[in-house]
């Protein structure tokens, strides 16, 4: 079962304080990310899973949705209520939502 949400659902969830995890590489994240997204590159996800809350939904984003699908599958098996964001950061930007540039996890 694919656990996927669209950009509009991410925007609603984020406005309500949802946790967003960005599984891209640091350079991609710094070039532009969803405000408040926590950077945990896909290749580090298994070792850092303890940083991800298990008591609420987690929204996983990448560039286009491929890496977030992989991450969501793994997180779900690890007991996390995770959802992949269809279209990823590219779709977020195309939809005109705010973007943060740089390494900080700003919440703007």
UniProtKB/TrEMBL annotation:
InterPro entries: GlpE_sulfurtransferase, Rhodanese-like_dom, Rhodanese-like_dom_sf, Thiosulphate_STrfase_CS. CDD domains: RHOD. Residues 14-101 form the Rhodanese domain. Pfam families: Rhodanese. Gene3D superfamilies: Rhodanese-like domain. Transmembrane segments: none annotated. This is Rhodanese-like domain-containing protein. The lineage of its organism: Bacteria, Bacillati, Actinomycetota, Actinomycetes, Pseudonocardiales.
């Amino acid at each position: 079962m694919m656990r996927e949400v669209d950009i509009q659902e991410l925007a609603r969830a984020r406005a309500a304080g949802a946790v967003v995890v960005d599984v891209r590489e640091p350079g991609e994240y710094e070039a532009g990310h969803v405000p408040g997204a926590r950077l945990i590159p896909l290749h580090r996800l298994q070792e850092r899973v303890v940083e991800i809350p298990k008591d609420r939904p987690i929204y996983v984003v990448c560039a286009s949705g491929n890496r977030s699908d992989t991450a969501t599958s793994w997180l779900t098996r690890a007991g996390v209520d995770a959802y992949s964001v269809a279209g990823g950061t590219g779709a977020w930007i195309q939809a005109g939502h705010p973007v943060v540039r740089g390494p900080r996890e700003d919440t703007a």
